[in-house]
Design brief:
Number of helices of chain A: 4
Structural class of chain A: mainly alpha
Shape of chain A: elongated
Oligomer: heterodimer
Structural class of chain B: alpha+beta
Order of helices and strands of chain A: HHHH
Number of strands of chain A: 0
Largest sheet of chain A: none
Largest interface: A-B, 45 and 41 residues
Radius of gyration of chain B: 22 Å
Shape of chain B: globular
Strand content of chain B: 25-35%
Distance between the termini of chain A: 29 Å
Distance between the termini of chain B: 35 Å
Order of helices and strands of chain B: HHHHHEEEEHEEEEHHEEEEHEEEH
Strand content of chain A: under 5%
């Protein structure tokens, strides 16, 4: 069961990560420094804990590109894509659980 | 083009070279000329957002820019790979060009209207229609008939460039379309539509009006203008059906948040106070109905004023009327966009304000000389 507190916790992490990635799109990867690396590492650890291995791996690649001072545009775009898919899959999971609860409640109400 | 997007992300917008921006502009024009409409529209929106940033516009959205740049990169990369591999199916899937075909005369009514306003740029109205009748006719393909039955949905959109921001968006519904009707007619009447076409693709089919299409009011006493009640009753909330469609849907990286969108009617609902945190740019009210908590959303700014006021009034009612609207799934929530209330002879469209601006006043305010 993922709905509830765990979903809220994951949603908070992904929202912060999305804000960070959006910020990097506007400012450019070459402006990224220690603060951005710290936030990327923190997000990667949390997402690893939640089992989001692919997204965590993309963040590793992005952080490596930032540290190398290279272009990294492709790494940023891959991280965005992975984040988006992760959020969509998580939302589908949570929404399905919420609908299942509503179905169960409706069935109980139908009982004589 | 994909490389251009990657370069832009490396340097950022503040130091983006003119040549990078020109590349995006050229890409948009080329995509449009080649009828790669999905890519073209994506590049157009990304360009518009970049110009808003460079113009220090208050309407600039980082989120929108990031989304559409990413989408452009995915489409370009995917299309390049499909071309290199000779993958026709992949190419078609990426283009996602809808198929537009003529249809028999249709009788429709509007259950709800979604309004979108980009200040100083454009306003758009999505009319959420319901088919009440389909004439026997030679027009139309047999394969479309299953989607053109009474009770099935259609969407028709009207988009207007905003010439005078002081004029409320609803006023543009008084402007005559090339087919010699005012879109506002759909707010109050059942209409019969002839010589039209429908685009079939993802989601709800879209009504397309051509030069020869006609849109005429069906008289109240005409049996063809069937009472909406049977249609409305058929749209009661069915969590089992929603659950089945949700699990059958496979999210993809090019999906919009509203990719899987459902029409629904909520009854016996309770609306809570506005939540402190927004969902993107939208205000959120918790709405409890049918054992679920939905996130009822209201756009910020002028776009959401009418709906926000209407919901505040309804929130205080002891037995609020059924609401018709659109449901989608976003950020682990069931997001509900209320569009109309269904407690009288006709839907009352909640996103539209009562500001009355006549056609003459509207035309005077539009500067056709400049």
């Amino acid at each position: 069961m993922i709905a509830g507190e765990i979903a809220d916790e994951i949603a908070l992490v992904t929202e912060r990560l999305r804000d960070l990635l959006d910020d990097l799109v506007v400012r450019g990867l070459r402006t990224a420094g220690d603060d951005e690396l710290r936030r990327l590492d923190a997000a990667r650890e949390e997402l690893d804990r939640f089992g989001a291995g692919h997204l965590a791996g993309c963040l590793d690649d992005l952080a490596a590109a930032v540290r190398a001072g290279g272009a990294g545009g492709g790494d940023l775009l891959r991280a965005q894509t992975s984040l988006r898919l992760f959020e969509s899959l998580l939302t589908r999971e949570v929404a399905a659980e919420l609908l299942t609860s509503a179905i169960a409640e409706a069935d109980l109400e139908d009982l004589p | 083009m994909a490389a251009g997007v990657e370069d832009l992300l490396a340097t950022g917008l503040t130091t983006a070279s003119k040549s990078t921006l020109d590349k995006l502009e050229v890409g948009f024009r080329a995509a449009s000329q080649q009828r790669l409409l999905r890519l073209g529209s994506t590049l157009r929106i990304a360009n518009e957002e970049i110009r808003r940033y460079l113009g220090e516009s208050a309407d600039f959205s980082r989120r929108r820019l990031a989304f559409f740049l990413n989408r452009a990169w995915l489409l370009c990369g995917g299309m390049a790979r499909a071309l290199q591999a000779g993958d026709e199916e992949g190419w078609r899937r990426l283009l996602r060009t809808p198929v537009t075909r003529p249809v028999p005369p249709l009788t429709v009514m509007a259950l709800g209207v979604a309004k979108k306003v980009v200040t100083g740029v454009f306003c758009a109205f999505d009319f959420r229609l319901r088919i009440l009748g389909v004439a026997d006719s030679e027009a139309g393909e047999a394969e479309d008939r299953s989607q053109l039955q009474p009770g099935q949905p259609l969407v028709w959109s009207a988009i207007f460039p905003i010439k005078n921001p002081a004029i409320p968006a609803e006023a543009y519904l008084n402007l005559h379309q090339p087919q010699k009707f005012q879109p506002g007619l759909l707010l109050t009447s059942t209409v019969r539509i002839e010589a039209a076409a429908v685009s079939f693709g993802q989601g709800v089919p879209r009504l397309v009006l051509g030069r020869d299409s006609t849109v005429e009011e069906v008289a109240a006493e005409d049996p063809a203008g069937a009472a909406p009640e049977p249609v409305i009753e058929s749209w009661d909330f069915d969590p089992a059906a929603l659950h089945e469609r949700l699990l059958a849907h496979e999210p993809g990286p090019l999906d919009l948040d509203v990719e899987l969108q459902e029409e629904m009617v909520v009854r016996d609902w309770r609306l809570g106070k506005r939540e402190p945190k927004r969902l993107g740019e939208r205000h959120v009210h918790p709405l409890a109905s049918g054992g679920l908590e939905l996130a009822a959303v209201v756009a910020g700014g002028v776009e959401g004023e009418a709906l926000g006021a209407a919901l505040e009034d309804l929130r205080r009612q002891h037995e609020p009327p059924p609401l018709y609207g659109l449901l989608h799934y976003e950020h682990c929530r069931l997001v509900f966009q209320p569009l109309s209330r269904l407690d009288g002879d006709w839907p009352v469209h909640l996103m539209l304000s009562d500001n009355k601006v006549g056609t003459r006043e509207l035309l005077r305010s539009l500067d056709f000389t400049g």
